[in-house]
Write a structure and sequence with these properties.
By secondary structure, the protein is of the alpha+beta class. It is built from 12 helices and 21 strands. The radius of gyration is 25 Å and the shape is elongated.
Amino acid sequence: MVAAIHAAYTAPQLNICIYERMDRVGKKLLATGNGRCNYTNLGACVSNYYGRFPKFTEYALENYTVDDTINFFNKLGVFPKEEENGKLYPYSGQASAVLDALRNELARLNIKIVHLDIASVSRTKKGFKLTGKDGEIYYADRLIMAAGGCASPALGSDGSGFKLLKSLGHHITELNPALVQIKTPTNEVKSLQGIKIEGTLTLMSEDKVLGSDSGEILFTDYGISGPPVFQLSTFVARYSSITAAIDFMPEYSMRQVYDILESRVGHLSHLTMENYFTGLLNKRLGNIIARRAGIEKLSFKVSALDRDLLWKMAALIKDLRLDVLGTKGFANAQVTAGGVYTEEFSPYTMESKLCKGLYCAGEIYDIFGDCGGYNLQWAWSSGAIAGRSAATDK
């Protein structure tokens, strides 16, 4: 949509049409930001993006900046609200506000929307021939592919755009779910289901630290979720034998945690382990810590805790390990890690180097960003550059 709008801004005389396979354009936007649409981030820069060549994002981000995005949506009626870590949401708190603003602008600019499930695209002497699955045929002088990746196929991103790009001579990397929940053995997390903690998550492969992030971690019936989990989930597709380590008290050293536990023995010696962690950790989490430390029964007396048990519990609070079995897959992923080779496109115009008149934007590239509005900013920046370039193409 943004590509079409900026093409219309650049050359109002053009006949611009959006071909949409879903029953409504932009449905995936409604699911972003937990239904509130975190539509950009004040700190967005090249270092927030990944892929084989993340520097591909540099020109677009510098020539269609976060400020440009804010001003663009502000003019369409979307007033920004800044939240933690530079995240921007519509002040109304509704993702539908962003989608409605874009749809209203499409209507104002007389940009047509044709619902078409494209089966094939071919290059002709005059441009492109688009054939629908029901046999409908349309023609275009220039074509912008903004079909997304494979993430959230129920909302439209089913990977079909990659097949069309392949037919036009392009190459696609390995595709993996990114910004997605992580699965662990269910017996290790089942009793913790529903618990949220503020902690630090670290992923390791054979004792090599892959990455670490802090924030809200949610325990589920299948494993773990939450912003740090989403942020680190891409490592799961790229490495094997991964272990997740959770630090439940990241602001304290292990020695400090030990001291806290030892002091509680003095204060709470009249209790059993069933209530020892009350007020420090979630009760169910405390039970897991105690059992893993070797305390089999919660009737164990706090007064009987010795130095060895206290150190074991301190170590578990600072470094609870869970085996990683995989992720929840594309159906639950926010974005796709991987995509069309960026080296086959110009970073200055988003035009294909292999097929003149073909442009790409957004998630369909081998580019994905951190969690927190970065992926939508890439969609807006690359879309704006593609739209402007396509509109001025001779």
